[in-house]
Amino acid sequence: MGGIEYKSLDINSIRHFNELKKLIDIDLSEPYSIYVYRYFLNQWPELCFLAFDSGSSDDDVPIGCIICKSEMHRNSRMRGYIGMLAVEKSYRGRGIAKKLVEIAINKMIDDGCDEIMLEAEVENKVALQLYEGMGFIRMKRMFRYYLNEGDAFKLILPLKDKSCIRSTFLMNG
Amino acid sequence: MSLEESFSNLRVDHQDNQFTAHDHYESVNSNDLADVTQLFQELSDRLQARTIIKDPNFDLFEGTHSLEVNNKKLDSSLIDLTEEEIHFDCNKPYGFGAKEGEWDQIDYVSAILDRLMRLVVCWLNDYQTLPTTLLSCKYMEYFLQKWTLPPLDNVNVLNTGDPIYDDVLGSCITGIGYFTKFARELLKAGVIFEEEDLNFNAMGLDLYLGLPNKVKTLKYINKGLETLSLIHDDKRTILLTNILKLTSCLVKLEDHILFYSSTTQHLDEMIDLAQKLYDEPELDKAYPVGSFSMEIQKRLANQFPPKKLVEPSSNYDGFIVLANDIKLILKIAQANSSLEIIQFANFFNKIRQLHVIARAIFSLFVMRDDRSVLGTFTLHDFLQAHVLPIANNLTKISPQIENALDPILQDCISVLFEWYQNSSQNTCRYRQGYNRQILLWDSVQAQLENVLTQLGSSSRLVVNQSGTAQENNFIESYASWAFVMKLNAMIEFTLKGFDLDCYKPFESYSLFWYVYYLCEYLQNGLNIIETGIQRTISDIHALNKRMKKLKAGEKKDRLRDQYHKLMELDMPGLQDRLKYMQYERNKCKITQSLCLVEVVQFGILASYNVITNKNPANSKFVNDELIYKLRFKPFSSIGSPETPTFTLSQETLQKFMFKESEFSSRIEESLKFMKGQLNHIEITIGEILRYVESDDEGESMMTGTRLVKEEASEYFTQLKKSSELLKANSKRIVKVLGPKPVQGLENKFTVMLSTSTGASRFFPILEVVERKPRGNGREI
Ligand SMILES: CC(C)(COP(=O)(O)OP(=O)(O)OC[C@H]1O[C@@H](n2cnc3c(N)ncnc32)[C@H](O)[C@@H]1OP(=O)(O)O)[C@@H](O)C(=O)NCCC(=O)NCCS
């Protein structure tokens, strides 16, 4: 088996776009519309990373991906946001997701983010363990956040002091 | 023909608001249609991959809910329907009369209404959507559709010619429709939240213009009952009779917020009927094919992806939950004192989240449209009533100061209302509500203290000396009250995080230690208040002494009158306030001791090296100080009590840890210490429970929990169980980890926050567990 290569998204590759959509849709009970993908990828293509298996017969099909964005939150702090993450079933448990998250976080740090945020289902123990293993903490629980009825946690990884001050006070200051 | 011309010629008839796909398409002449394919193709060819066409106000949130044409999972127009579904006709009396072996109309109507009733429970108790429950019923849709137009003279919108359909089914659907309107009113009032608490995706059918009023609806249901009484079919008429009666109970629920009725007769009836329906064996007959369908999702304005219909279980007991929970909240109408109202709000929704309808009724029943509380207190009175259990009420304050205080008191009222509203929120929002309140109480307290400072410096110009002292006392009472409310909000917010599973074991040290520290301040705040009450009591007694020293005369008589009045009117209340303070202090002591034992156990576990208060994550992104600060962000702006710094929190843990050389003796001491603490609080909890269960029979304490006896009992019983579990955990730690730390324990063991049934979720136990390899060879 060859090595895993990580690349940022080529927004002009319709093939990569379709493949990553497939990769993510497969684990969702209700898929995202094409708009959601376009919303992230067209505005923040540099915050989308794909993993490829260079030893595979079709080494141009991504086997893992992470999709993020970064924006000013409440006029007070730069917030990176991990929107989607998935690794193809047969490649799981090999540290690929961890690597993808690391690459994305590093990029968001370089871009000046004060914190990284994401939501994860309370029942998604694997995802929680993955993110918590990287320093994210559960800030709040949201009641029936997902359309499929489960509660979710909002997780944050603080990167700078600004992450630790209520935005009301940052806005005033 | 130009495109513009074609559009202007296109005449879409939607007079009756109905766009049924089949007849809609049939009614459009193909000459009226404009082919826009080419135009679209031309435009899309010019689009670049990066371009997004969207309204500027369209944000990600809406984006995640956006649909997609031609995507089977996201395009409801692709739902496959059967012929029966498409052609289902609500005005046809499905069934074959009384022919033997065939399904009769009454079979069908029973099956339809039985399913519909159970779908009500799925909608409300299981938080399912309207289109997958009630709106999946063709009759429900048909009626709601009819009600989008002004009322007809005849309440009956069905015209099958068969009374089983026209009266029995028709009246039941009308009653359920009436109830859905009530649920929508609750949502509109903003006391519960669309989607998370209740789904009301009515697909444009929520106009209710033609919905008959309550009297007509109930009369209609009675007509249905009469129809049933003429049919001699035991099994199904009993079922249908019970269903219709249950429906009329649902119709009556609005009385609790329209007329603030606290009558529970219909609720008892609901419980009785629901029990009967629950006990019935399941029907062996099916509803007519096509009477329940996903069709509405395909045909009407639908902003959601297709969703499969909900299959209801035998869930009539859901109505029992609904009725019992409403009965519980109506008990607040029996409150004899402001203390009982406070305690009601404290306990009614604390351990078990009540039914969404009951939670919504609570808010509207307590805070009324006429801006009164329970119809008896004005907002101002209510605020005072809140402060009174802890305030010195002998105070007369000058109009000048009253004016100065007014805006602050208005703020107090707003926060207080927020506190009440929050008490009925779902369990996740409840914690977030406290997050916001921390700031609000802090601001109110700061404003009051500011007035106090100003009074201290310049007030003597305006008011005389003794006036100032009284006024200071008065404002101090409010400030202490706000301080106590703030501390309670901070404690509740923090401990609720354990209940909601928001913390990892490594964080539990700093959080329990913080609550312990807050309790220290709370205890002080309560002591100040108690001293104030005692001062007032002494003032009254002093009046008596002063009077006795006076010679007989007018002055003495006046003082005697005043003294008797105070003894009669104020003294019992003051004594009660002292007793209530005793309860509050005991409660605070229990929380504080439980937290202390948790931190001591953490210290022991840390000494064994099986846990630290640092994030165990092995990642370069981990910054313990930032993580700590983020966790304490809700308190970061609070000046009093000051938020402990990361360094301080680290240092305190050292104090709870033992060096190897002193391990044996210190662990011995700690175990003894914890046992002492826990034994002590178990006695205190027992004492509180005795008061709760006896409606405050006794001299030393007052809990004010008469109306929420069961809920308060459960809360304290759970604390007792947690105390027992903590005791057992002390022993278990030593048993599992040995008398002394040995090398490598951290590789063999880890620590989990565990909760057990019957114990408090606010105080999970730090349980030592063996590390187990995960399926893929890695460890958990
Ligand atoms: C979540 C997901 C992306 C993980 O991908 P992966 O490549 O298998 O993960 P990795 O091998 O990089 O593991 C990273 C961490 O995840 C956690 N993890 C992975 N597999 C786990 C398992 N079976 N059980 C528990 N934790 C697990 C571990 O913390 C692991 O770190 P560790 O090995 O240092 O202990 C993958 O399971 C997936 O695609 N799931 C479906 C989509 C999804 O849930 N996405 C997240 C939405 S927020």
UniProtKB/TrEMBL annotation, chain A:
<dbReference type="GO" id="GO:0032880">
    <property type="term" value="P:regulation of protein localization"/>
</dbReference>
<keyword id="KW-0808">Transferase</keyword>
<dbReference type="InterPro" id="IPR016181">
    <property type="entry name" value="Acyl_CoA_acyltransferase"/>
</dbReference>
<dbReference type="GO" id="GO:0004596">
    <property type="term" value="F:protein-N-terminal amino-acid acetyltransferase activity"/>
</dbReference>
<dbReference type="GO" id="GO:0031417">
    <property type="term" value="C:NatC complex"/>
</dbReference>
<feature type="domain" description="N-acetyltransferase">
    <location>
        <begin position="4"/>
        <end position="160"/>
    </location>
</feature>
<dbReference type="Pfam" id="PF00583">
    <property type="entry name" value="Acetyltransf_1"/>
</dbReference>
<keyword id="KW-0012">Acyltransferase</keyword>
<protein>
    <recommendedName>
        <fullName>N-acetyltransferase domain-containing protein</fullName>
    </recommendedName>
</protein>
<dbReference type="InterPro" id="IPR044542">
    <property type="entry name" value="NAA30-like"/>
</dbReference>
<dbReference type="GO" id="GO:0000822">
    <property type="term" value="F:inositol hexakisphosphate binding"/>
</dbReference>
<comment type="similarity">
    <text>Belongs to the acetyltransferase family. MAK3 subfamily.</text>
</comment>
<dbReference type="InterPro" id="IPR000182">
    <property type="entry name" value="GNAT_dom"/>
</dbReference>
Automatic annotation (TrEMBL), chain B:
<feature type="domain" description="NAA35-like TPR repeats">
    <location>
        <begin position="329"/>
        <end position="656"/>
    </location>
</feature>
<dbReference type="Pfam" id="PF25789">
    <property type="entry name" value="TPR_NAA35"/>
</dbReference>
<dbReference type="InterPro" id="IPR057982">
    <property type="entry name" value="TPR_NAA35"/>
</dbReference>
<dbReference type="InterPro" id="IPR007244">
    <property type="entry name" value="Naa35_N"/>
</dbReference>
<dbReference type="Pfam" id="PF04112">
    <property type="entry name" value="Mak10"/>
</dbReference>
<comment type="similarity">
    <text>Belongs to the MAK10 family.</text>
</comment>
<dbReference type="GO" id="GO:0004596">
    <property type="term" value="F:protein-N-terminal amino-acid acetyltransferase activity"/>
</dbReference>
<dbReference type="GO" id="GO:0031417">
    <property type="term" value="C:NatC complex"/>
</dbReference>
<dbReference type="GO" id="GO:0016236">
    <property type="term" value="P:macroautophagy"/>
</dbReference>
<protein>
    <submittedName>
        <fullName>Uncharacterized protein</fullName>
    </submittedName>
</protein>
<feature type="domain" description="NAA35-like N-terminal">
    <location>
        <begin position="51"/>
        <end position="212"/>
    </location>
</feature>
<dbReference type="InterPro" id="IPR057983">
    <property type="entry name" value="NAA35-like_N"/>
</dbReference>
<keyword id="KW-0963">Cytoplasm</keyword>
